[in-house]
Automatic annotation (TrEMBL):
<feature type="transmembrane region" description="Helical">
    <location>
        <begin position="78"/>
        <end position="97"/>
    </location>
</feature>
<feature type="transmembrane region" description="Helical">
    <location>
        <begin position="251"/>
        <end position="270"/>
    </location>
</feature>
<feature type="transmembrane region" description="Helical">
    <location>
        <begin position="118"/>
        <end position="142"/>
    </location>
</feature>
<keyword id="KW-1133">Transmembrane helix</keyword>
<protein>
    <submittedName>
        <fullName>ABC-2 type transport system permease protein</fullName>
    </submittedName>
</protein>
<keyword id="KW-0812">Transmembrane</keyword>
<keyword id="KW-0046">Antibiotic resistance</keyword>
<dbReference type="InterPro" id="IPR047817">
    <property type="entry name" value="ABC2_TM_bact-type"/>
</dbReference>
<feature type="transmembrane region" description="Helical">
    <location>
        <begin position="154"/>
        <end position="175"/>
    </location>
</feature>
<dbReference type="GO" id="GO:0046677">
    <property type="term" value="P:response to antibiotic"/>
</dbReference>
<dbReference type="GO" id="GO:0140359">
    <property type="term" value="F:ABC-type transporter activity"/>
</dbReference>
<feature type="domain" description="ABC transmembrane type-2">
    <location>
        <begin position="39"/>
        <end position="273"/>
    </location>
</feature>
<dbReference type="GO" id="GO:0043190">
    <property type="term" value="C:ATP-binding cassette (ABC) transporter complex"/>
</dbReference>
<dbReference type="Pfam" id="PF12698">
    <property type="entry name" value="ABC2_membrane_3"/>
</dbReference>
<dbReference type="InterPro" id="IPR013525">
    <property type="entry name" value="ABC2_TM"/>
</dbReference>
<dbReference type="InterPro" id="IPR000412">
    <property type="entry name" value="ABC_2_transport"/>
</dbReference>
<feature type="transmembrane region" description="Helical">
    <location>
        <begin position="187"/>
        <end position="205"/>
    </location>
</feature>
Length: 294
């Protein structure tokens, strides 16, 4: 490799890192604006508050035939579901808005702008999802006894959260790029709700038909729920899982695969979508948006 090629590669790497840093800054600013917006804050807090109230009503209840707290069994699955839900449903709805207000057009005109845009979305939704999780976990652990809460729990949950957000946000961004308006992203919300059914979140996956178990294992909901259960439940509860194993390696492998696919696919889809945008199309979309009374 010649000195010129080495210098060119170094310049490209510097440009990518600059885009990553810009994305992190953008993600932090968008998070601050989001939590200051009442409608966004209600969306961030509504589900964890509802879950916490449900767990409160479970206080004193046990799994039939055992003395294990029902709330302790449900909470880890809710944690895994919240991570997946925060990463898969929120980002897609922002793509149409960013397309209409010209954000994507500006990102397209910036070197490595799509990479920075994607990094910003990952950080933003990681932070807002983290707020939701804290609202859920802090009160819930006081009413859900029998949980395993130690150093291993903290480390494993942190890793699961980080990998989970990287595995879900880019996929949501890529899917959101296929929708022409924000209202159409409701289809993704509906699809996510359907995927919860075979995911083992609210019912042991081993009790489902085998073909439905395979469907559940193909998507992040199951693996994030399994990971949270492996972090928070005592070892004796592993008997309810497939193969009576937490399958930690497989969990990180599947989520890692989703992350790789998303990080490769999302910038490509975003760039292709942005190529179809122009100042006139953005202005027309904005005019339609304003004419609806928003």
């Amino acid at each position: 490799m010649t000195m010129t090629e080495t210098a060119a590669r170094g310049t490209r790497n510097d440009a990518r890192w600059a885009a990553v840093r810009a994305g992190l800054t953008r993600g932090w600013l968008e998070t601050k604006y989001s939590i200051q917006e009442p409608s966004d804050l209600v969306w961030i807090l509504a589900f964890p508050v509802i879950y916490a109230v449900v767990l409160l009503f479970m206080r004193g209840s046990t799994i039939p035939g055992t003395d294990f707290a029902l709330g302790a069994m449900v909470l880890p699955s809710l944690v895994g579901m919240s991570i997946a839900f925060g990463g898969l449903t929120g980002p897609a709805s922002t793509i149409a808005v960013d397309r209409e207000d010209g954000t994507l057009l500006r990102a397209k005109a910036t070197p490595n702008g799509m990479l920075g845009y994607l990094v910003g979305k990952i950080l933003m939704f990681a932070l807002t999802t983290l707020v939701s999780l804290l609202v859920l976990i802090i009160p819930a652990v006081t009413v859900a006894g029998d949980l395993r809460l130690d150093g291993r729990t903290f480390v494993l949950l942190t890793l699961i959260f980080l990998v989970g957000m990287i595995a879900t946000v880019p996929i949501s961004v890529a899917l959101g790029s296929l929708f022409k308006s924000a209202s159409q992203t409701g289809l993704l919300f509906l699809g996510s709700m359907l995927l919860i059914v075979p995911s083992g979140i609210f019912y042991p996956i081993t009790a489902l038909p085998e073909w439905l178990q395979w469907v559940g294992q193909a998507f992040p909901y199951y693996w994030l729920g399994l990971g949270a259960r492996s972090a928070m439940l005592p070892e004796s509860m592993v008997v309810a899982e497939i193969g009576e194993s937490w399958r930690t390696f497989e969990m990180f492998a599947v989520l890692g695969l989703w992350a790789v696919v998303g990080m490769v696919l999302a910038p490509i889809v975003l760039r292709r979508m942005a190529r179809r945008e122009s100042g006139s199309t953005v202005a027309a979309a904005r005019e339609r948006y304003m004419s609806k009374g928003y």
